[in-house]
Fold Aminotransferase.
Amino acid sequence: MKLIRRTLGLPVSPIDAIRELFAEQRSAKAMINLSEGVPAYGPPPVITERLQQAVRNSQTARYAPRAGLPELRNLFAGELSAAYAATVREGEVLITAGCNQAFCVAVSALAAAGDEVILPAPYYFNHEMWLRLDQLTPVLLPTGDTFIPDPVAAGKLITPRTRAILLVTPGNPTGVTVPPAVIRDFAMLAIRHGIALILDETYRNFRPTSEPAHDLYRLPKWQENVITLHSFSKEYAIPGYRVGAMVGHPDLLAEAGKLVECMVVCAPRIGQEAAIAGLRGAREWRTRRVGEAAHRLERFRQLLADAPGGFRLRASGAFFAWVQLPGWPEPAEELVRRLATEQAVLALPGTLFEPIDDRHLRFSVAALADEQFDDLRARLTAFGGSRTKP
């Protein structure tokens, strides 16, 4: 259509294409779907019980305050304060329609067309897409074999047009957790240059430690340069309810809130009710689920320890494993298609997360059921044996 201009050249989100591939799959084998970063289980009973009550209340169908329900903002500020041994206030919390929206309104409030945002690669594809859609320039920061971004290297990329640096930790797609000292170095870099550090902490509670992920909330005037982004989707298994949060300076939140109002008026109230129930009554449930996720990830690491079928584990953590099939002669997109059609295993191609094609795949380990591990190993082994006859 000739009228379309703004989104031309942007990649199509892979999720619908993967679902179509799932629907078209004709293998006798049951599909092992490792393409989406979602929990394989539903929300805790305390959430479903609260929602059953909430839908009977006519207030639940009304708009929420633009910044979010005060109860949720207060509860979440309290949780962050306890988790980080710091003070985060209700007025420093903006509730959004998922963490994706938190990122979008944060960068749109910070930057204008032509400005730059430093983005470590591999990156989460929606981040890169939004920057380009918003006419911003993503400046890629390679992360090497460790997949941990280097603040010194990032400093060399800063120009007069740089408005922010983004970190995602634990990462998507790699799962790698950035050490607290490195996060602090990035914050200091942002402060020295008068730019923002945006820290996406969607998988914060799925780290291999209960120690604070960083000490940024204890920095003097942290709100001037630090923005953190959060999600309730993974922690309480409610991705469809679309509820997340942005934490930062109240002045910035007010500007970001204008964008929220234009997009959705307010984050869905039903999702906010779910998050309130989770924060009030599902913390022990969440702790158990985090432990199960860690056990599942360790089983996956063991599964790939001897590179079955040539599949090599490059990095892993939280929900994800970053896997490579080096030497595969066809592009990663074709690798994904053949893996689905020949072995009924769905993954995402690495080319969605980085501009080069090194035959990487992202596997969402969180979706693996206990009975699927041995089967997955057998399928990867069988598929790797076909590499000489694509």
The two ends are 36 Å apart (CA to CA). Residues 67 and 254 are 8 Å apart (CA to CA).
